[in-house]
Specification:
This protein has 290 residues and is an alpha+beta fold. Helix content is 20%, strand content 38%. It has a six-stranded antiparallel beta sheet with strand order 7-6-17-14-9-10, with helices on one face. Strands 13-12-11-8-15-16 form a six-stranded antiparallel beta sheet, with no helix packed on it. A five-stranded parallel beta sheet has the order 2-1-3-4-5, sandwiched between helices.
């Protein structure tokens, strides 16, 4: 199990811009940390001063107040900078967060004494190529999705694994997900659930038409290349960000990133399986229980 953070001194507490009610709570967390001898800054996750401090190595820990979307955005920022993340759940699901917002005061002393462990989560490195030229690169925590655009017509996709042809898909989309992403869009599309500490890529087709419809788990270390064949709009979406338009013949390649996202965990390492069943039988986004 990884060692706790050495010399924890500077903490950033960030909130989602659409959760203004979280700002007073962020200030309370910061005040509590300062009372215990730490330096703390607060702000929106996308604010420049926060991002610059993380990138410059001036932050030892980032505390994110929000939901799973906030945690994904925090992972994009903190993964490449090797900054651990502690999630305080203000959202609905909380697959990725660790503490309910009602209980942070009783849990915080464990952070200060090093009574936690760091969970390493694989990230994907994705690149878009057009006629051999790299047009963009992204590090994502959940998945990349190559899909049709606004027109309701499937796209033709060819997938290659480690340079070898795998399959041709005629589908609404093809998802290449991390184990973290296996409980997100890939799960909704019928894919399997992978333990979060694996380092495998999961391929799941969305609404395949006369195409392979089984999800495929690639061997650890494998890469995937997806080539688009279409005469209408196709797009690439990395972790649900704004879609990037693709042209006929564009290639999207994905492999395990050199970066990992580190989450602070106070629960024992079996927490994932223990917490999974309640989520499967109670969808927080509906506001209903069953």
């Amino acid at each position: 199990m990884p060692e706790p953070i050495a010399n924890l001194k500077q903490v950033a507490i960030v909130i989602h811009p659409q959760m203004p009610e979280a700002r007073p709570k962020a200030e309370l967390v910061a005040e509590s940390l300062r009372e215990n001898g730490l330096s703390a800054v607060t702000g929106l996750l996308q604010e420049e001063h926060v991002r610059k401090m993380v990138a410059a190595g001036q932050i030892d820990l980032l505390i994110a107040l929000g939901g799973d979307g906030t945690m994904l955005r925090a992972g994009h920022l903190c993964g490449p900078a090797c900054v651990p993340i502690l999630g305080i759940n203000l959202g609905r699901f909380g697959f990725l967060t660790e503490i309910d917002h009602h209980h942070w005061r009783e849990i915080l002393p464990r952070l200060l004494t090093g009574d936690y462990w760091l969970e390493q989560r694989m990230m994907l490195s994705a690149m878009q190529y057009r006629r051999g030229e790299c047009l963009g690169k992204w590090d994502v925590l959940n998945e990349i999705v190559v899909s049709r655009g606004q027109m309701v017509r499937p796209v033709h996709l060819k997938a290659y694994v480690d340079g070898r042809f795998l399959a041709t898909y005629v589908a609404d989309a093809l998802i290449a997900a991390t184990p973290t992403g296996s409980t997100a869009y890939a799960l909704a599309a019928g894919g399997p659930i992978l333990p979060p500490t694996l380092r495998n890529i999961l391929l799941v087709a969305v609404a395949p038409h006369l195409s392979i419809d089984q999800a495929i788990v690639l061997a650890e270390g494998s890469s995937v290349s997806i080539t688009v064949y279409t005469d209408h709009q196709a797009v690439l979406s990395p972790d649900g960000q704004l879609p990037i338009e693709l042209e006929d013949g564009d290639q999207v390649e994905a492999c395990a990133s050199e970066h990992t996202t580190q989450f602070i965990r106070f629960q024992d390492p079996d927490y994932f399986y223990r917490n999974l069943t309640p989520y499967l039988y109670q969808n927080p986004s509906t506001g209903r229980q069953r």
